Amino acid sequence: MSEPVRFGVIGCGLMGREFASASLRWLHLQGDLPRPVIVAACDTSADNLAWFRRVPDTRYFYDDYRQMLANPEIDAVYCAVPHHLHAQIYGDIIRAGKHLLGEKPFGMNAEDFARIEAAMREHPEVFVRCTSEFPYYPAVQQMVQWYREGAFGQIIEARFAIRHSSDMDLNKPINWKRTKAANGEYGCMGDLGIHTQHLPFRLGIRPLTVSAQLANLVPFRPGPDGTPVPCETWDNAILLCAARNDAGDRFPLQMEMKRMAPGCTNTVEYEIYGLNLSARFTTDDPNAIRYTQTVGREQAWARLVVGQKTLYPVITGGIFEFGFSDSLLQMFAAFVSELRGLPCPFGCFTPDEARLSHRLLTAALQAHEQSRVVSL
Questions:
Q1: Pairing with 265, which of 3, 134, 192, 364 sits 20 to 30 Å away (CA)?
Q2: How much is the average pLDDT of 30-45?
């Protein structure tokens, strides 16, 4: 049995609980992957910490993350805190010698990322990655396989989108993601952008220029007492890039990040169009990938059901559906595999990719403000 990776969790809200749940599903994976054992939890909310008392492996509870980082039993940290805290807390985790899996956008802005990167240079022995779970859907990995095999031929264009409709309720109270102080200038791009970037960046698709359409559609939301307060951040963003891949193809690349998306919940869509093959994936049809077949002079769309053909084999039969919690399990398996030097066919979002993400989003803000195309 592989030696487990002993984790502390900083930020015990929605995603912290998802990580704990995935760690307790580790038997779902075949083989002998190191299990993430959550030995410590840290949150300023007593209610969030109370939930973690249900986790059998968790023995230490903190309201100060610095005290948790001093615990020698902890090998690695999963951190899910508001964006303005990334630079300080991520840096402190790295300086404490703990491996880090941090939530997006890995720094509120480019300057904050540079502070995290400085800590990484001081401690090259620390393994650091950022979360991004949607590429771990088996249908997306089928797209990856086709792309790496060259099946698409010359690329015509590519589109990557996340349409997140949680803010369509105009009476939804304001939260920290609507404030520049906590969420930064990026707005929806910081919180959602990596979901549109992990796959193209990993496939070697690089944006060369960007133009941007940003929208703050709901300028006020109810505050704590019901009084309207300003919403300071962007709700929706569409980025249009000129891009190039490793084969030298140049083509349009579109990235779409929306919090106001009628008819959607947390819909992710990936599309790659090529001269030889085109393919589309959507979480509205999570077990399948659509691809083109040539019929004479025409191309027809076909639908291939992929099922549970996962990167890391699981006990679930291949005919059954794959879902969001399964993608998280696969992502965490990728993290601990790469951390321990085990085979990892598709790793988590890297610091180098995070640097490119910040370059892109910083340029997008400039492009929108100046109504022009900005070169990266």
A1: 364
A2: 96
